[in-house]
Design brief:
The chain is α/β, with parallel strands linked by helices and 375 residues long. It is built from 14 helices and five strands. It has a five-stranded mixed beta sheet, with helices on both faces. 40% of the residues are buried.
């Protein structure tokens, strides 16, 4: 019995040694998961990109904005000259917070009380909650400082309530419902998972069964073979997307404020890249399990680093650079921009360009690799 058991163990080790890719993936995926969970994911959001519409030009306004910047919760990056420009930055997703300081801020603060409007992009509840709490805390601290100076008789004389009133407005998701943020993002994850895995597995399965060679020697051309594989997967992906939108709207009450035809059209650029990844995986994989593990390895960083579940603003700088090369990052901005904010192509093109570049590059590389593999 011992010799038979030893023989089976040795045989299994030989199989593992022959399938180096599967062994590397089996050891590498858990390490990658631990690394991503431990290093990149952080729900304590700081350095939120902030736009400021400062109309007073007063020393008190500058002092308040410096306090915001020094709090580490806000990064004052954009100075705008109109409310419309500030709205555009928030709609575009370039800024997550907008601060509006009225023209009479300094005069009113020196006499009785002044208010500051803080607009928060609440489509991401984690970012919004962090910004809301930080803005309210900052307002309370500044009010306390001003009242302390008043009591000491070194500054203004005043009576009544807090001298600084920070009025916070949450846009797009005022009740901070997490489902409204997560569900539209899952549409992108579904499209990615469907197109990569289905594309890779369908070709590798043909190779495993030996039918791929039969197709190659048949009169069918190679581009026809590839297109014949792509079109059904594309149809399934669009079907999934339609079902997901219906469930999001009618089950989870996700508002659909923008243009669905635009969403379907821009989704094609995202799927161009994911189909390319699927073809590339099929070209380097010899077995279905290896193809599925590679697809999972591709899927994993996209899920945790793209902003699907956790805000990119809370990640380390290196993780934010990684997020900037993940296609799902840009598609999430497009789908959330259309579904939650109702914005159009004029606001979304900055996210579309990286998708087009990535899609053309990876699809071309995948087709070349696929042809070389067939040769």
């Amino acid at each position: 019995m011992g010799s038979r058991l030893l023989g089976i163990i040795v045989k299994e080790f030989i199989h593992l040694r022959r399938d180096v890719l599967a062994l590397v993936l089996a050891l590498g995926v858990p390490v990658a998961m631990l690394g991503i969970f431990g290093w990149a994911i952080n729900t304590d959001v700081k350095h939120v990109p902030t736009a400021v519409f400062e109309q007073s030009g007063s020393a008190e306004a500058r002092s308040f904005l410096e306090a915001m910047d020094n709090s580490q919760y806000f990064d004052v990056r954009y100075w705008v000259s109109s409310h419309r420009e500030l709205t555009r930055l928030i709609d575009q997703g370039t800024a997550k917070v907008g601060v509006v300081i009225p023209p009479d801020f300094g005069r009113r603060l020196s006499r009785q009380s002044a208010d500051v409007q803080v607009i928060v992009d609440a489509s991401d509840p984690l970012v919004a909650t962090s910004a809301l709490n930080a803005a309210a805390s900052l307002g309370a601290q500044r009010s306390l400082q001003i009242m302390t100076r008043t009591l000491e008789g070194t500054s203004f004389g005043r009576q009544g309530g807090p001298p600084l009133d920070v009025r916070v407005r949450a846009w797009y998701n005022p009740d901070l419902v997490s489902a409204i943020f997560i569900v539209p993002g899952l549409i992108g994850a579904l499209l990615m998972q469907t197109t990569i895995t289905a594309m890779a597995v369908s070709i590798v399965r043909e190779r495993e069964k030996g039918t791929l060679e039969a197709l190659i020697v048949s009169p069918i051309r190679r581009w026809e073979l590839l297109l014949g594989k792509i079109v059904p997967n594309l149809g399934v992906a669009y079907g999934q997307m339609t079902m997901a939108l219906l469930v999001a709207h009618f089950v989870f009450d996700v508002p659909i404020r923008g243009s669905l035809p635009l969403l379907y059209a821009l989704s094609a650029t995202f799927m161009l890249g994911t189909l390319g990844i699927g073809i590339f995986i099929s070209a380097v994989s010899r077995t279905v399990p290896a193809a599925m593990q590679l697809a999972f390895l591709t899927f994993l960083p996209s899920i945790y680093l793209s902003g699907l579940l956790f805000p990119i603003e809370g990640m380390p700088t290196a993780a934010q650079y990684l997020a900037s090369v993940i296609p799902l990052t840009y598609f999430l901005r497009i789908v959330r921009g259309i579904v939650l904010k109702g914005v159009g192509f004029g606001y979304l093109w900055p996210s579309l360009i990286p998708l087009v570049i990535f899609g053309v590059a990876i699809f071309s590389l995948a087709v070349l690799k696929f042809r070389k593999t067939l040769d």
